[in-house]
Task: inverse folding
């Protein structure tokens, strides 16, 4: 919709600009043609009127008035059936008494513009032309007014004005304007249709790619885009399918590698349990008999027992990882004293704290017993305490235990 709207707006702008230029050109051409025709007709008619006045042998005012009226009527009723307005009036610079104003019926009450009359007074030898507006049948239409100077015997200088209404030209311009509007509207709609088809050709494959990518993201790795033709969209679909195939292949390789890793972890953890059990039995026997040994041997048996405990814990973690990878990990919740659990974790790392000059402090005035997976919570607490000791720069590490009706916190 955005592309179609922008295309239609741009088309509307172009249509308005080009249509306005063409319309103005046509209007100017009609005005120039009408003006040239009006000037030519006015020149001929003025010469005929002047010849009629020059040829008369009677110069009394009644005869001159009748001759003026006949000339105006003849000019206003031409053979080419064009409606003209004619006015014969005394020139603005003529102070002699003479015949009154003579005009056609439609021209009565119309006064020629003062600038045209002044121009004729300053240059009576040349025509004066102006485009004016006439009020005809309730609408204003343009007209060409041509003013010329004639000389009437015993009456002096008179101005002859011929007004040529451009109603036919106005009607022609109205038809042109209507045609431009209809053609412009059709062109804009055609542009919108072309933009819709063009965008649909581009957007449909893109939407298809989006849907296929969504299905790929959902795990359907066998989804592919349809490839049609050999254009840019087809090349995009081919590249997209190649990418999907490559991803499917790499994901398959990673899954195979993950299965191998899971199998290795499971196998190693299970294979280590047998020798560890044997070592644990021997270590327990030595640890139980440590009272019969020298002090340093007894100390070594204690260290051996503690390290075996740690090794068993690491093996339990390895087994836990294999269970998580296999999706078989389950919670083993038992009632656990949080204060006792934190105290055991502190005791487990007291030697490390002494080595780094760090003092471990347990603040648990009120004990709380909750159902947790003791081994996993203990692993979390060990990680936190070890990090605090190693990165505390020798400052005391305080372990706080608190609880309310809904939760316990360390």
Result:
């Amino acid at each position: 919709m955005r592309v179609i709207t922008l295309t239609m707006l741009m088309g509307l702008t172009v249509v308005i600009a080009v249509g306005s230029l063409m319309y103005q050109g046509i209007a100017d051409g009609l005005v120039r043609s009408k003006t040239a025709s009006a000037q030519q007709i006015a020149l001929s008619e003025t010469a005929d009127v002047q010849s009629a006045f020059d040829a008369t042998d009677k110069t009394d005012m009644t005869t001159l008035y009748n001759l003026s009226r006949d000339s105006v009527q003849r000019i206003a009723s031409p053979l080419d059936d064009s409606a003209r307005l004619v006015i014969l009036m005394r020139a603005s610079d003529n102070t002699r008494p003479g015949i009154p104003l003579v005009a056609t019926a439609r021209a009565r009450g119309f006064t020629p513009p003062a600038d045209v009359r002044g121009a004729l007074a300053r240059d009576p030898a040349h025509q004066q032309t102006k485009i004016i507006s006439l009020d005809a049948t309730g609408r204003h239409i343009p007209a060409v007014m041509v003013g010329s100077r004639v000389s009437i015997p015993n009456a002096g200088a008179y101005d002859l004005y011929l007004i040529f209404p451009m109603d036919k030209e106005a009607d022609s311009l109205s038809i042109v304007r209507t045609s431009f509007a209809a053609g412009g509207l059709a062109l804009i709609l055609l542009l919108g249709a072309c933009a819709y088809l063009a965008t649909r050709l581009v957007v449909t494959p893109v939407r298809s790619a989006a849907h296929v990518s969504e299905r790929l993201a959902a795990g359907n790795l066998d989804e592919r885009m349809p490839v049609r033709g050999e254009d840019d969209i087809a090349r995009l679909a081919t590249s997209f399918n190649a990418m999907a195939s490559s991803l499917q292949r790499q994901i398959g390789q990673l899954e195979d590698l993950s299965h191998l890793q899971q199998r290795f972890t499971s196998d190693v953890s299970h294979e280590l349990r047998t020798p560890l059990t044997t070592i644990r039995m021997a270590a327990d026997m030595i640890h139980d008999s440590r009272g019969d040994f020298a002090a340093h041997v007894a100390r070594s048996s204690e260290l051996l027992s503690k390290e075996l405990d740690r090794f068993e814990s690491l093996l339990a973690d390895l087994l836990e990882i294999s269970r998580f990878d296999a999706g078989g990990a389950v919670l083993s919740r038992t009632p656990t004293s949080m204060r006792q659990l934190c105290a055991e974790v502190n005791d487990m790392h007291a030697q490390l704290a002494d080595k780094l000059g760090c003092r471990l402090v347990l603040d648990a005035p009120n004990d709380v017993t909750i159902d947790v997976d003791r081994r996993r919570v203990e692993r979390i607490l060990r990680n936190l305490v070890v990090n605090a000791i190693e990165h505390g720069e020798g400052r005391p590490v305080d372990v706080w235990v608190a609880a309310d009706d809904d939760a316990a916190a360390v």
Q: What stands out?
A: The chain has a mean pLDDT of 85.
